[in-house]
């Protein structure tokens, strides 16, 4: 089958070579040399697609496609941009499709529409969002948060492993984190193509997912302080060991999440100190990433964990502190944009189904500002955030075509103005 967007796959392969590790995974953290190389490549792709490119104060790459007859045409002109894009940073040892597919597909969609001679009735902005994952500093989505006026100053003081703060890294990259307020936009709609990162589409034999909503999330650092002592000479009853306390904490939150549908809890980072086999630990510090399509689930579980922590402090004679690092409410996707995606899939002969997104995405920050339209394509074996992350060339092409047609329709007039 002749591909309608032949450059998409090649660009995906070329971008994936930046930050590639020996084991085939990709680590491309924000405000690093890899990030700078990726930015330069994307900048070139956007310019070659006929889009004028700039960088905002948060480091987002913005490619603007302005209508030929803009405000000076005297016509009724809605300057609110249609935004389409995704992120281009990766998690630690991640894959080649997460974020990048959506951004490259948006660039190729504009190239196609321009080459066809399509004339948008409103500005179309292709955006490469900065640091969606938050894997380097721990505070994610600084780019899309800033664009939506939702960045929190404390996020700038989050630090990476070498102690560099997000704010310092931005300054070192020629940005001014004091000007994040200048990133704020008034969008007409936000469209994002993304890999599913789960196995719902693959298991249901569908090529496209019309996303109904994006789960909300909260991220915490939990620290349990005990008292280090000799592993052999200290009787069990005399110990203040943070590791059994941590284990009980993790089992409890896991059990509470299991009891609720579309609710997940993950402990992805664990650090114990001092960390020798014959020393009872002094402290245990670990992360919690908890998500649900119902914000109330997260609230109720964390309230129950607060009570459990008081109990643990008493029985295990330890001190527990829990710090909220990040919170994002669940974001519904726009029904009319979802129906538009479903109709386009029917017109294109693509099997499509509705689903929720357990993963977080830049689009969720646009909730409350404008309609959000999100479409997924299948992830092979449901794998993501690892080198095996893969989506077939055909499915990438199919998702990009649906995105292109959504951009065409939305650029012809904002979704909320469409009857
Ligand atoms: O963590 C997430 O859901 C996304 O990949 N940042
Ligand atoms: Mn991701
Ligand atoms: Mn992503």
TrEMBL record:
Allantoate binds at residues 219, 278, 291. Zn(2+) 2 binds at residues 98, 133, 385. Zn(2+) 1 binds at residues 87, 98, 194. Its cofactor is Zn(2+). This is M20 family metallo-hydrolase. PANTHER family: ALLANTOATE AMIDOHYDROLASE, ALLANTOATE DEIMINASE-RELATED. Residues 216-307 form the Peptidase M20 dimerisation domain. Belongs to the peptidase M20 family. One of its GO terms (molecular function) is metal ion binding. Keywords: Hydrolase, Metal-binding, Zinc. The keyword Hydrolase applies. Binds 2 Zn(2+) ions per subunit. NCBIfam families: hydantase (TIGR01879). The lineage of its organism: Bacteria, Bacillati, Bacillota, Clostridia, Eubacteriales.
């Amino acid at each position: 089958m002749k591909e309608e967007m032949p450059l998409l796959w090649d660009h995906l392969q070329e971008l994936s070579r930046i930050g590639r590790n020996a084991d085939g995974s990709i680590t491309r953290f924000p405000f690093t040399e890899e990030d700078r190389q990726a930015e330069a490549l994307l900048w070139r792709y956007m310019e070659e697609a006929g889009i004028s490119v700039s960088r905002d104060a948060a480091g987002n790459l913005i490619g603007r496609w302005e209508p030929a007859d803009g405000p000076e045409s005297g016509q009724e002109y809605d300057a609110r941009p249609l935004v389409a894009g995704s992120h281009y940073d990766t998690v630690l040892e991640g894959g080649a499709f997460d974020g990048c597919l959506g951004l490259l597909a948006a660039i190729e969609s504009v190239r196609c529409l321009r080459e066809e001679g399509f004339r948008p009735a409103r500005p179309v902005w292709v955006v490469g969002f900065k640091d969606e994952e938050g894997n380097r500093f721990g505070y994610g989505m600084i780019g899309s948060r800033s664009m939506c006026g939702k960045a929190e100053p404390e996020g700038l003081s989050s630090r990476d492993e070498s102690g560099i703060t997000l704010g310092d890294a931005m300054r070192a990259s020629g940005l001014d984190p004091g000007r994040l307020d200048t990133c704020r936009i008034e969008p007409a709609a936000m469209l994002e193509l993304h890999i599913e990162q789960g196995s719902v589409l693959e298991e249901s034999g569908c090529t496209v997912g019309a996303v109904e909503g994006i789960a909300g999330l909260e991220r915490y650092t939990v620290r349990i302080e005990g008292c280090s002592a000799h592993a052999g000479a200290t009787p069990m009853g005399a110990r203040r060991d943070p590791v059994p306390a941590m284990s009980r904490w993790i089992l409890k939150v896991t059990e509470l999440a299991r009891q609720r549908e579309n609710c997940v809890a993950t402990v992805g980072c664990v650090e114990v100190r001092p960390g020798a086999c014959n020393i009872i630990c002094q402290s245990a510090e670990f992360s919690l990433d908890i998500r649900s399509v119902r914000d109330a689930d997260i609230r109720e579980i964390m309230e129950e964990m607060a009570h459990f922590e008081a109990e643990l402090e008493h029985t295990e004679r330890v001190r527990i502190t829990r710090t909220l690092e990040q919170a994002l409410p669940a974001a519904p996707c726009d029904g009319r944009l979802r129906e538009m995606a479903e109709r386009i899939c029917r017109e294109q002969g693509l099997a499509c189904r509705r689903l929720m997104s357990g993963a977080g995405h830049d689009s969720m920050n646009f909730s409350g500002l404008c309609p959000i339209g999100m479409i997924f394509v299948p992830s092979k074996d449901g794998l993501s955030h690892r080198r095996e992350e893969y989506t077939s060339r055909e499915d990438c092409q199919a998702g990009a075509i649906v995105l292109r047609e959504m951009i065409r329709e939305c650029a012809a007039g904002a979704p909320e103005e469409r009857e």
